[in-house]
Amino acid sequence: MPQHSKHASKNMGYGRDPKYAAKNKLRDHFNSGRHATTITHSERFNLFIDWIEEHHKIYDLWNITNGHLLAYAEHIKTLMNDESIAVSTAHNRISSCNVVLKIMRGDNHIRIDKIARTLDKKRCYVRSRVPDGIDLNKILKAQHQLKNSGNIRLAAILGLARTLGMRLREAVLCDLQRIKMEARKFGLINIQEGTKGGRRGAHAPRWIDIKQSAADAIDFAALASPPNSKNLLKPNETYISFIRSVVRYKGKSLGGYGIRKIHDLRAAYACERYEQITGHPAPVIAKRQAMSKDELRMDKEARKIISRELGHERIEICNSYIGSCKR
């Protein structure tokens, strides 16, 4: 329901401020769930609002036309060509405009369908930058410093993400006592909690070999777990509140430890596993000029293993973690 019915003719009844209106409409649309999605789309859409208010003096979302959106896309294209923003960022900004305008309007009349054609450049999913956290000793040092500053749960997340390839949600919600028992009994753990796409339970096993560094990370996380909790959340704490108060707030300081984002630690895990399996550095670290048939076969096998360990179905997704072996 619109929050300000007396202003129903402006911004679809969600207030005079387009930014406020868009954010609250997204919250209503997602039933106050999917907090991260709401924030992400809102932040990107706010950049569009800033631009359209400055250049077209438009303060009502009803007045936005396809012409305005195409003009904004040209602005984004200029930023991309000047290398002020990445190709992926350009795609994401336009995609969020499509999403928010569709939700606000209830139709698809104002949108850009072929973003890659509009920007004259396809989005590339091949990693070209070496991920943060390759050096495990630096992660251990960061954990030690975070622990001493009272951020032991954030420190635990770094260890789980780096040594087990866990996503942020998986690291926060994993049953620490269960995986500690599995590690001790089998030398393997099965990542089940917090996974994407319904991949949990016996029908979607995701077993990971436990090295000493991973065993240490699990022990550390078990110590960081609050009393009467099986994971990193306090008994009465929600995942969203934890992300807001601990990860997002404290995570701002991770740049001081050489970590731009926690997800990079997952890529660092993948790069380490590639070298363990093939005996060669991951392509993003040191691309080989030529590979024999046996090496190409081993590369493909490594990608299958890593993809499965990361919780993906397609081996192509490995390109975004370890890079491509193609020239």
From TrEMBL:
Tell me where on the tree of life, at the top rank, the source sits: Bacteria
- Which molecular-function annotation in GO is an example for this chain? DNA binding
| Span of domain Integrase catalytic | 145-272
Keyword field contains Repeat:
no
Keywords of the record, alphabetical order, are: DNA recombination
Pfam families found in the cross-reference section: Integrase_1 (PF12835)
Query: What GO biological process, any one, is recorded here?
Result: DNA recombination
- Protein name per UniProt: Integrase domain-containing protein
Tell me the classification of the organism that encodes this protein: Bacteria, Pseudomonadati, Pseudomonadota, Gammaproteobacteria, Pseudomonadales
